[in-house]
Amino acid sequence: MASTNIDVTLTPLFTGSQGSASALNVNQVIWGRAFRQGQDIFELFINTASIDMGYVSDAGVLFSDAEGELQVTERIKKSGPVTARVWKTGRPTVGNVSVIYTALPRLVSRDTKNGPALDLRVDQGGLIGSGMAFLGTPPNEPEVTILTTLRWDLSKSPQGTLAAWSMGDGEGPFEIATKSLVGIASGVQEAYFAVGPLHRMTSPDDYMHINEADVFNMYWFGTPTFDPLPLGTRLQMLFREMSAFFRDRGNRYRIFLRHNPFRGSLTGTALRRSFMYGYDDSERDCPPSLQDREAVLAHEMVHNWVLLTRESVADNWYHEGLAEYYQVLLRFRFGLLSAREYLEQVNEKLVAYYTNPLVTWSLERVQKMTWNMTDAQRMPYMRGFAFALQVNDVFRTARHSIDDLVGPLADRLQGGESVGVEDYLQRLSQLLGGDEIRADRLVTEMKEGKLLIPRVHGLEQLP
Ligand SMILES: [Zn+2]
């Protein structure tokens, strides 16, 4: 099978008397791949989903191979939500190709608009962000496996410097293999990175990296507005239980906390096996409760297993609704919520559903308003939640629960299969004794905006 190898070395640079991490030297060696004259050789994102990224120092991006310096020409390419700088080589390449540049953080202030947490930033003496923001890659080759070896060079870093990324912490090397997919060339872009005076909470059995298959770690710089340890300890327990519940094969998860100088409390973005969780200064005056934070992060953890790989935009009722359902249900089932708290949470969600002015709108119509009003943004979450209760209730007479529907879809997802709403429908009708018409009607009515009134069997029975 064809493969391209990429060796990536990341060297953080520090400035000031405090030794604050201020830039990242990126050194990539691409081997096992020859480029023709005029062929695209490398691309670096400069904007994704309206977030600026891809800043480099004035020295620019330097290319060379076995014959020395490579002359390149550059252009800007737009595709979907991504704008990228693309370089093509002026002559055929010989041997390994090296790409070297110094990546700089994005500058943010009080006035920066909150958005997906994909940019690279300075945070309390450290650097933290997603790989998309600073790791360029060669363009995709269909059907080629990319083997990336990633290392941190901390030999010139101040004492106490720690590096971590979604796939592990310490200097590495870390090896990952990925099939090239559209937009994600090397698999290292869909990950979070942090380096500097980093604090971490590790799984009890992880501090020697004995068991990389059972990891729940949390990382942060400086002093967050809350104590990360009690939250981390509860989430660690919950993640273990969730992994077992969803028959997880990887069993790894890493949460990165990051300070937002702008309004961005209880926000965040999920990448592979990891989540960037934002907090802001408003929390010092009105702190969210431990339960609030836990609910947000538990919801995100559920997405590890509850996700559709093929979906139209109006189908987010599936993963958002079920993430809401399971974050509440599993916290109750595994003892993090008392029966009373569980009921309160369920009622809170149902109240939000019934009082949403768009409750009887079709999801297609709701979707068009998503970025204009919060009610539209929240609707799929609440409707999907109410629908999960309804499906549970419908199943009760057939002695099934929604777990029998979601579990197999999660299995297939983990097995690398693509999963879509048709698969949900198929499994639903199977569990209804092959009643395709009924399955289809349930989903269609929900999407069209028929008011959902789940009955008593929709809820996990209280002890
Ligand atoms: Zn979600």
Automatic annotation (TrEMBL):
Residue ranges occupied by any Peptidase M61 catalytic domain in the UniProt entry: 315-361
Superkingdom in the source lineage: Eukaryota
Name of protein: Peptidase M61 catalytic domain-containing protein
Organism: Trichoderma lentiforme
